[in-house]
Amino acid sequence: MGNGQKRNEICFCGSGKKFKRCCINKNVNISFKFVHASQQSPEPNLGIVPSLEFQGQRVRTIWSTLYFRPLRETFHEFLILMAYRNTYGKEFHENQVSIPSDKRHVTFKWWEAYCEWGFKNINNIVEIENGKVYYGTSTGEIQSLLQHAYDLFCLQIVNRLPEFFISKLRDVHEFQGVKYEVAVAAIMARAGFEIEFLDDNYKSEVHCEFIATHKESGQKIGVEAKSKRRKGVLHEEGEFNADADNRGNIQHLFRKARTQKPKDIPFLIFIDMNLPSTNVNNNSFDGEPPDKTWEHDIDQIYANYKNQSTSPDPFNAVYFTNFAFYYQGNNSLSFPWITYIKKSESPEHEIRENSLLECIQSSIMRYSDIPQEI
User: Fold this and answer.
1) Distance (Å) of CA 353 to CA 148, 338, 356
2) What is the percent of the chain with per-residue pLDDT over 70, rounded to a whole number?
3) How far is the CA of 123 from the CAs of 135, 138, 261, in angstroms?
4) What number is the average pLDDT over the span 341-369?
5) Tens-place pLDDT, residues 45-79
6) What burial class does residue 79 get, using C-beta atoms within 10 Å of its C-beta: 0-12 exposed, 13-18 middle, 19+ buried?
7) Euclidean distance between CA atoms 275 and 97, whole angstroms
8) Per-residue confidence (pLDDT) for residue 134, from 0 to 100
9) How many other CB atoms are there within 10 angstroms of residue 318's CB atom?
């Protein structure tokens, strides 16, 4: 295994020397007997090796690489660091610094918000076993960054983040769609599925985003993920108008998703509404939230589809999500995300075990539950 260290970092062995002048050429093996048997992973379906302490550092594992980190670094800090260091990369970060702020990638803006949040809360100190850490109330931008980083981490843990995904994540025009694909794939991975992405090699045919295979039962399921684009949101041109744009106008996404079903296996559709919350304590509207919400729109769209459909449904379930934490901006996160589910009563291909849909639903319901430590 690699050790995840850079050449100019202080060596993990504790010598005080730089890694390149110390253990870089040594075959260092770490005994995992240091892992306490009582430690249980909060994500049992991912096979995560719990972190451990070794010679004054915390050792974390991502796929085949070991990372030696300071003991006082929290798991959340590690997630955000890895998102930029391992996924988006140093070159991406340096490029963002050099361009005008209005042209910067939204993840970089979330990163800036995270740094500002750290300075703001630097005096909010709490003692932990390995020293002191600061804390504060999460905001919409920080939750967006942290959740995205956790989704990336979960896919990297099982080595299922293709290189072509990374280039698309860096692209402001591709980011929204790929970010949602990452989120859905992470949800399925946390539910106990192996992920096979169908990349650009399949351009010549209509296909879904990926095939999910349940590890225990072997059940294969096709999965399609689509995110509604809104004016002025996630790099889209224009300006979002809460009064005019807060509608569940996703007919075309639902229609297109149905055509992307793979042959001979069950099929799940995920559609993200990308809208502000209309729940209690909503901060996105002047006055009371509208009586007619996007959930009502979905009911009508689905009813129209069923009235016009004469054949079995190509899908087994459609999950309408709203993982749009970023609408809260720098405000405290005061509302939950939403998932609205439509299950087919007559799917073209049955899922052998009904419990699999329950596993997926459970994973969705835990979407914003990020462990404090792994």
Assistant:
1) 30, 25, 6
2) 80
3) 9, 16, 53
4) 93
5) 998 888 899 988 999 989 888 999 998 888 999 99
6) buried
7) 29
8) 66
9) 23
- What is the arrangement of strands in the sheet containing 210-214, beginning at the earlier edge strand? 193-197, 210-214, 220-227, 267-272, 317-322, 338-343
Tokens encoding 345: 């009563």
Please state, in angstroms and rounded to a whole number, the distance separating the CA atoms of residues 151 and 169.
13
Residue with tokens 């569940």: 248
Phi-psi label, residue 234: left if phi above 0, alpha if psi -120 to 50, beta otherwise: left
What ranges make up the beta strands (E) of 183-249?
A: 193-197, 210-214, 220-227
Residue found by looking up tokens 């005080």 in the block: 16
The answer to whether 190 and 176 are in contact (CB under 8 A) is no
Q: Which residue has the tokens 């901060």?
A: 283
Which parts of the chain are beta strand (E)? 52-54, 57-62, 65-70, 125-128, 131-134, 193-197, 210-214, 220-227, 267-272, 317-322, 338-343
Contact 72, 130 (CB under 8 A): yes
* In contact, 110 and 141? CB cutoff 8 Å: yes
Burial pattern 101-140, b for ≥16 Cβ within 10 A else e, equals: eeebbbbbbbbbbbeebeeeeeeeeeeeeeeeeeeeebbb
Tokens of 275: 């809208």
The Cα–Cα gap between 98 and 206 comes to: 39
Q: Which amino acid is at 52?
A: L
Residue type, 281: N
Would you give the DSSP letter of residue 269?
A: E
Q: Where are the alpha helices (DSSP H) in 191-311?
A: 242-245, 251-258, 294-308
pLDDT digits (tens, 9 = 90+) for 117-147: 888 887 777 776 666 666 778 899 999 999 9
The whole-angstrom separation of Cα 234 and Cα 104 is 11
**How many Å apart are CA 147 and CA 159, to the nearest integer?**
18
Q: What is the pTM of this model?
A: 0.85
Shortest CA distance to 225 belongs to which of 180, 260, 170?
Answer: 180
Q: Please tell me the distance from the alpha carbon of residue 178 to that of residue 330, in angstroms, as a whole number.
A: 24
